[in-house]
Structure formats: structure tokens, C-alpha cells
User: Fold this.
Amino acid sequence: MAMLRLAPISLTLLSVLVLNVAWAQSQKSAVQNVVFILSDDHRYDLMGFMEEAPDWLETPSLDRLAAEGAHLKNAFVSTSLCSPSRASILTGQYMHHHRVVDNQRAVPEGTVFFPSYLQAAGVQTAFVGKWHMGHDDDSPREGFDHWVSFLGQGKYFDPTLNINGARRDFEGYNADVLTGQAVEWLSEERDEKRPFFLYLSYKAVHYPFQPAMRHAGRYHGKPIPYPETMANTERNYRTAPRWVRDRRFSIHGIDHMETGAFDNDPVPDFDDLYWDYCEAVHSVDENVGRVLGYLDEAGLAENTLVIYMGDNGFHLGEHGFYDKRDAYEPSIRVPMLARAPGLIEGGSVVSPMVQNIDIASTVMDAMGVSLPDGLAQARQMDGKSFLPLLEGREVPWRDHILYEYHWEWNFPATPTLFSIRTDRYKYVYHHGTWDIDAFYDLEEDPIERHNLIEVPGYQKMIGQLRDQMFEELEASGALDVPFRKPAGDRLDQRKLE
Assistant:
């Protein structure tokens, strides 16, 4: 299928076009400011207010957001991997459109991130934290008036930050330092007469999980709710694709547990992995609380939309995994919370399925900024604003989501796959493997233990979903896969993840 190739649009032209949509004077904004907080590898169900979470997990700040705002309980990513997900958040596009298909791929020239539209419309913008697109590049990116970031995955302790082009060394826990930088910009450097958009992106709780030292060991010894599909039994693997069981003993499988092999650190067992993860979640929550506390003290809470989400999910033993990438629920589902007093009713729950590709449209909608006519068609976003859902309005909405992941040569245990998920059913196509596909009834089997792909009674539905998925993928250009040639030593490449 022929694809439309678009020439890059300069930011000068972008500014001219977007300034036609003057901030505030010509459009009524729903909120004045937005703070978007992104964590890494935080799975959807590990928040204190969730029934699935262990009763000893403490997340008072996230619990507060849920109590004072909305919990979007069916939030998903379109690709469960750091860089592709971040690009989808910032562009509002699927991976096959923004073309950032792995963790080493640089952002294609000419890409415009949605903060550029805000910036050109008069909003002051700031980015603080993990960028992770273009692995060895921490330089300031277009669309942000203020920039604080670090190279690649960064370090959990004593980070070196690039602050508006100049590097500075800091002591302390990465999330603590980033929060300090965010609050400093909010309190001392921004123009108080202008609306602002802050994008705060934490490294935590990215694997290998490390909490702040003050929380190290906080949960060790607590009872662990081992998932049912973690056990290496025939019952759990009877109908599973072969690659699923093979992955258990390969990269990202709990019977492999390769972390530490590169730096001679001890390899953790699963229990330590789980406890460390929860301690890192608590460390992030504490820093979210610092941001909320500043908004309260500065009198900004009442006119600021706060959105919290994870960049992708993470397995903690399900199917024998400890990673993401695949299309199982723990991998593709993410936590998402939103608070805006006067706009969002406290304690509300949003049930329709939303995705990371919806963030750009939602933030722009909330701030009263839209794509001008001359740019809308050229830079079409795949997502749409879920602001009406936050406001409690009933509007036409999607009845399914699409998911895509492209095989990575340096992490080969997970194949290329595409998936379509409705409120009840999920079909997963595995490409390039001598294996079977997957089909799950999520209402009857929420833990996805029973693959129904060969059950006669489901063949009509499977065929319909498969046809629908491929028709939509083909129409969108998703089957034009941008593979890249591997480069460098394989061991060195594995370290980049």
C-alpha cells in the first residue's frame, strides 16, 4: 500500500499557523495549567486504592489523586516499550506513524511534539526528566521553553542533568532531584502571568528497581500475591503459544533473571524483585506528593489539571515474565489518574478504554488549543481527547483498541505482534514465529490462562476480529515496518535497554 510521505514543517511556519489560534482571547480553556506526570514501568494495579494491590503498599499521593479526581481504570498503551510509548504520548500517534519503534531509534527529522502547539499559542512549557528517544542525546528538544534531562535511561542515584544545554552533577535519588528541579521551575523561573504545561518524567520505577535509600527494605518480608499463571505447570501453558513458555527461560523470564550479569551484581530472586518494585513505587508516590503539595501552597491546585500515568505496564510473574512488550494485560495496561477541581468530580471512575495516543489531544483540548486548519490534516493525531469523559459526559467513543510491537534483535524473546482488544475479547497475531496466535475471553478468563484460538465455537468471532484488525492496520500504514540494521557488539547493545 502506498504511503503518503510528508515534508517536514518548520517550527517557524508552525508558529505562524498556531498563533492564529490565539491563547485565551479567542478560545475558552477548560483549565489554565497542566502538569503531566509520567512514571516508568508502573503497572496498572499497584496503587494503594486498587483492590488488586497488596494491603501493605502505600501510595497516599496517587490515592489522593483518585479521591479528588478520576481514575481511568481502562487505560492502555499502543506499544508497551519506553521510547515508542513516549513518542506516542508526545505526538498523539501510533508507533507506525511516529516511527520510533525501539529504544535506540532517534526521533525522525520533522517530528512535531504537541507542546510545540501549546508553546506557539502562548503557553510556557517545561520538560523535566527521562526523555529516552535518541539514546545518547540529552540535548534540549523543540517545544519546551525549559529543559532538564539526562542521557538514555539515566542513573537512579547522583544523576548528571542537562539543564537548558549545560550539564550539572547532582547528589541524591533521581526522582527526588527531578522533583526538586520541577518545583524550582514552577516557583522561581516561570512567568506567573502565563499558563504553563509541565511534563515531569520519572526514571522510576524502571527495572532494575531501586527505591530511594530511605525506603530500601521497607517492604522486604511482606507477603507477596504471586499470580496464578506464574507457576510452571501444564495447566498454565497447555494452550499458550510456544514462545510464551520459551520466554520463561530466556530474556525477561523469571527462570532466567539475567539482571546484574553486566556489572557483576548479585542476581536478585523474584521476591526481592517484587519488594524492590513496590518500594520504588512508594518513592515515586512520595515525589508526586511533593508536586501536589507545591500546587496547594502556591494556590495553583484549583486551576491546574494534573494527569498521572505509566509509560507501559510490567509483568511481575504473570506467565513466568518480568517485563513488558507483549500484549498480555499486565503489559499493555497502565495506571492513569486525572484531577482538576471544578472540572472533574472527585472519586469518579472512567470506564471507556483510553490510550497513550489520547494524551496530546486531551491536554490541548483542556488548554483550549487546537490544530489550525492548515496543519490538522498534515499532522493528524491518531488519538482523541478524553476530556469529555473526565467531565462525566457521554460521548461517542471507541469500542476497541489496537496494539503493536516490533521484534527487537537484541531482545529476541518476544516476537513481532499485533493485537485488537474489545471490552471483552482480545485477539493477538504473532508474526514471524512457527507458532499459534491467541484469543482470550477477558470476562471469563481475566488472567489470560486459556487461549481459545483453536476452539471451534469461537472461530467466527476470531475471524472477524482478525480481519478488522488487519484492515485497520493496513489502512493506517502499520504493515510498513521500519526495521533497522543492527549495529555494534550484541552485548553492548543489550546494555542499552
